[in-house]
Amino acid sequence: MTNYWVASHISGLFAIYDEDIDLLKRGSRGAGFSISRGTTTTVRFSDDNENHFYFNKKEVDVNRANISSFVLNHCLKLAQSYYESDFGVSIHHKFEIPLSAGYGASASGALSCAFALNDLLKLNLNEQEIYHIAHTAEIVEGGGLGDVLALHKGGWEYRTVEGAPFIGKAENILSNQFKVATLSFGEMNTKSILKNINWKEKINSVGNLFLQEVINEPTIRNFGLASKQFAVSSMLATPNVIDFMKKYDSDNLIISQIMLGDGIFILYKDSEDLPDHPNLVQETICHSTVKKL
Predict the structure, then answer these.
(1) CATH number of 174-282
(2) Are 290 and 8 in contact (CB under 8 A)?
C-alpha cells in the first residue's frame, strides 16, 4: 500500500491549445493558483484480482473513474515485465475539494495516482515520466488541459507555453498581501466546453488578451482583474457567478470565476471584508504540491 497527496489547482483565465499531434505538447495557457485542499490517493493490490476505484470511500464505476483508469492501465502495461501473473489494484481517492467544479480534482487525482502506482508497482519512473502520464490522462479523457503543468509550478502562476511539465512553461506571479477564498455553487461539465469548437473560439479570442495583461504586470491584483474581465468577456460566467459579483462587489474585494466551474474565488486582504456565506472557504496557497504520506 502507498499513499500520496497532491494539491488542487484553480484557473482564473485560460486559452486552449489542443491540436498538436503530440499529446505532451497539448494543453492551455493561462493563470491561476494551487491550494492546500487536495486529493489523497491510496493504492493497494486488491483481494480479488480485479481493479476497483473509490471516491471518498464509495466505489464508483470505471466510467466515472476514467482518468484514474487511464493512469492505471498505462502503469500496468509498464509493469508487465515485472509481474508474471494477473493481479488487481484498488485505487482510493479522498477528495478535499468539490468534484467537477473547477478545482482541478481530475489533475490532482491523476497525479497522486501516478506517483502512488509508481511506488506500488516498482516502476522506477522519474518525476518527468510521472507528470507526463498524468498530463496525458487529462488530455485524452478531457478532464483538463493545464492543471498538471500548474501543479508542477505551484503557488500563484501563469502559463505562457502549453504542454506537460518539462515541455510547457510557467512562471510564478509576484506575491503580495492578497489572500484567496472560494465558493462552489455546483458542477460544470468541463469536457462539453473544452471539446466544443464554438466555445474554444470564444475563449481563445479573449483568453490570450487577458493573459498578456498578466504577463505585462504579473501581480496577484492584476491577475484577479484580468480573470474577472475574462469570465465576463468569454461568456463563461454563470448566472450564479454574475449575481454574486453584483451583490458583493466592493473596493476591498476582487471576485472572479473558478475555471471551469460554477463557483467564484475572492481576492482579499482582510477577512472582515469577506461576505458572510456559510460555504465560503478561506484557502491557503500551496507551493509544495506533491507529498508522499
Answers:
(1) 3.30.70
(2) no
